[in-house]
Amino acid sequence: MIQNDIFFADQQLELEEVEAGKLTRKIRARGGKLMMVEVFFKPGAIGYEHEHPHEQLCYCLAGEFVFTVGSEAKTLVAGDSVYVPASTLHGATCINEGRLLDIFTPQREDFIKS
Amino acid sequence: MIQNDIFFADQQLELEEVEAGKLTRKIRARGGKLMMVEVFFKPGAIGYEHEHPHEQLCYCLAGEFVFTVGSEAKTLVAGDSVYVPASTLHGATCINEGRLLDIFTPQREDFIKS
Predict the structure, then answer these.
(1) Residue B87 has what DSSP assignment?
(2) Distance from CA of A46 to the nearest CA of B (A)
(3) Domains defined for chain B, CATH in brackets
């Protein structure tokens, strides 16, 4: 759990399979109260609705998604972003292959391999 | 200062000039303890070394940069990311035109127009 890294080169980070053939992710820079995770979606892949006590930002890096927060759904394309309050249901469905960058505070300790 | 927005469409956000002909930025999703800011750099543009009590993540969206944290400097290209601890000197010099995505906790209230 202890890490004092500053620089996180893309090439040195593990690509984790979340759902075979559909969803992979890389945990990117993290430290203190912040963590960044990039999620790679194939068309039709779903980040199922869920909630957590962490606040979250999401930035659409590429592709097209329908993103739901609470009862509101919007289409996201590259450059669009979202704020997800703590303990609020949210999810994403991939329309065209793409990538989302999720930022959490505090860190998602459940994502970190012991 | 009060805002309860969830979705931040790229097209609806103001592009602010930071340094004429060199640096522009968009404040993207923000809320609670999180704020996301995209900075657009022309070659040779410099984000001068500075520090603040906020913790920060930085993700290189495009281009090439030399990024300095404390006494350490690294080249960043797309996909590379950085964690900047609170109250730590950091800065960026653009080598090839590009974009950095900065995330702060708490929000940079000094960036918000009253």
Answers:
(1) T
(2) 19
(3) 36-106 (2.60.120.10)
pLDDT digits (tens, 9 = 90+) for A63-72: 999 999 999 9
pTM: 0.96
Radius of gyration for the alpha carbons in chain A, expressed in angstroms and rounded: 14
Tokens of B17: 């000039």
pLDDT of the residue at B3? 58
SS3 per residue for chain A:
CCCCCCEECHHHCCCEEEECCCEEEEEEEEECCEEEEEEEECCCCEEEEECCCCEEEEEEEEEEEEEEECCEEEEEECCCEEEECCCCCEEEEEEEEEEEEEEEECCCHHHCCC
B/e letters for A33-42, b = 16+ CB within 10 Å, e = fewer, are bbbbbbbbbe
Q: How far does B30 lie from chain A, in Å, by closest CA?
A: 6
User: Token pair for residue A53?
Assistant: 């006590």
A 74-93 residues with CB below 8 A of B? 74, 77-86
